[in-house]
Amino acid sequence: MSTGLELLQHALHAADHPVLNVTDVTRLYGERIGCADVSFKLWPGEVLGIVGESGSGKSTLLRCLAGLDRPSSGCVMLDDEGMTLDLHGLSEQQRRALMRRSMGIVHQNPRDGLRMDVSAGGNVGERLMDRGERHYGKIRSVASDWLRRVEIDPARIDDLPRQFSGGMQQRLQIARVLVSEPKLVFMDEPTGGLDVSVQAKLLDLLRSLVRQLNIAAVIVTHDLAVARLLTDRLMVMKGGCVVEQGLTDQVLDDPQHAYTQLLTSAVLS
Amino acid sequence: MTDLVRVTKLGKSFTLHNQGGVCLPVLGGVSFNIASGECLVLHGPSGAGKSTLLRLLYGNYKCSEGRIEIFHQTRWVDIATADPREVLEVRRHTLSYVSQFLRVIPRVSALDIVKEPLVVGGMANNLAATRAADMLARLNIPERLWSLAPATFSGGEQQRVNIARSFISITPVMLLDEPTASLDAENREVVISLIEEARKAGSALIGIFHDELVRERAATRRIDIQSFTIAEAA
Questions:
Q1: What percent of chain A has pLDDT over 70?
Q2: Which residues contact A26 (CB under 8 A, 6 or more apart)?
Q3: Residue A42 · residue A19 · CB < 8 Å
């Protein structure tokens, strides 16, 4: 058990340390540039959006940040319970343990983030077991509580994800990721492929959960309305490079770069 | 009276890269201070840059030149050069923007929209709900609408929900972008008294009001925006 003093020290440390500190991350595929020289810091509770057309390097960057891919050069530093760790300097085993412990990834396609042959409750409960929870009754009750939070009827706790609609699968994936209360969450087009009414519901849910849990998040999207609703800061990418970054509302309402101006003027509002 | 806002030689021009790189100068050499308890009204014809100035003060537009210092808690922060994290921090505690439009969040009820700033500020849910209800009643929003999402409300009702949300937790510096546009006389009176209360509580307000009556009643000082407008570049 942590003492009050330790908790306070953690809180003070977290308040003036970025959760994520990214320096000059570059990922090359042979001659081709995936992403180049990306640097930023992300603090607790902050939500960063990455926008840009397909092929601009958004997903490549996200994969490097989330430890799924290795940058060709550059550095990704993560704050882990008061220690600052170099994500790509760790051993495979350490990195996996860190990823399980303190980060979560919401994939665009729920099938990539869920175990399709395991019940809804199992999908959520598995993450609690990863963190050492062993009491079956408790796991089931937390899982059922999380189904309710993402607006899935807890009566369906024993159903398989394939019996769910696309929107429900995505909400189940979000419950699976957030149940372990990660400090850092990566989302790749979390509302892509969903119809508009389901999207609005999901956005509203994400918005309130991110606030309640004080999560730091990086969200890749090509939808500027999604970026406006969910993010505090925005990074605009083109050809693998960041062409503009700043406050979300400033970048969208007073874009400085030619490409951002093109992007914002192409949207029907 | 202590100053809460200091604007120094502020300038703004827009460069339209996709329309031949044309450069539109809007404001130049804007300097003024606003003190606690003041309500400053921006005066000038449509297109003179009143809204642009408010958006610059909020950090919504990027300054081309000059400084915008806001007194935040114990120190001055220059919005023109502060990093995004700092601007967000200032907006959370010190600086708010009241527009005439409600940015509708899907599915969230009017009552929840109005109480949100109090809850974020740490107030207990029940107390925040009571305060929000009082504010909605004061702005003449019928009680049967409180539990509904404002997406289906009339324009005037949405505007009043937005005003309720903005004035429920007043900030030291408040930017008002035509908050009384298209309100009826009764609700205009409510807004005028809300502005007066904010002033008495020590806020510094700066606003655009097209309504002559509101201008006369609410303003303590007036600035002619045209004297700041720079001539078309040669």
A1: 93
A2: A33, A35, A36, A37, A38, A71, A72, A73, A74
A3: yes
Count of other CB atoms within 10 angstroms of residue A116: 11
For B1-94+206-234, give the CATH class.
alpha beta
Contact assessment for residue A165 and residue A87, using Cβ atoms and an 8 Å cutoff: no
Map residue A237 onto helix, strand or coil. Answer: strand
Give A83's strand partners: A80
Q: B18 and A249 in contact by Cβ < 8 A?
A: no
Q: Is B74 on the interface with A (CB under 8 A)?
A: no
Cα of first residue to Cα of last residue in chain B, in angstroms, is 42
Give B12-17's long-range contacts (Cβ < 8 A, gap of 24+). B12/B49, B12/B52, B12/B53, B12/B56, B12/B61, B12/B63, B12/B64, B13/B64, B14/A254, B15/A256, B16/A261, B17/A257, B17/A258, B17/A261, B17/A262
Helix (H, G, I), strand (E, B) or coil at B208: strand
φ and ψ of A52, to 5 deg = 155, 160
CA distance A77 to A84: 6
pLDDT tens across B192-215, in order? 999 999 999 999 999 999 888 888
Residue of A233, A247, A252, A256 to mutate, testing the B interface (most B Cβ within 10 Å of its Cβ) = A247
In this structure, the strands spanning B173-177 and B204-208 are: parallel
Token pair for A205? 């849910």
Q: Nearest 5 degrees, angle CA B2-CA B3-CA B4?
A: 115
Residue of A nearest to B17 (CA): A258
User: Which H or E run includes A245?
Assistant: strand A241-247
Displacement of CA A1 from its chain's centroid (Å): 28
B106 contacts A201? CB cut-off 8 A: yes
Q: Domain coordinates of chain B in residue numbers?
A: 1-94+206-234
Q: Give this complex's ipTM.
A: 0.90
Helix (H, G, I), strand (E, B) or coil at B55: helix
**Residue A189 per-residue DSSP state:** S
| Interval B129-167: pLDDT, tens | 999 999 999 999 999 999 999 988 988 899 999 999 999
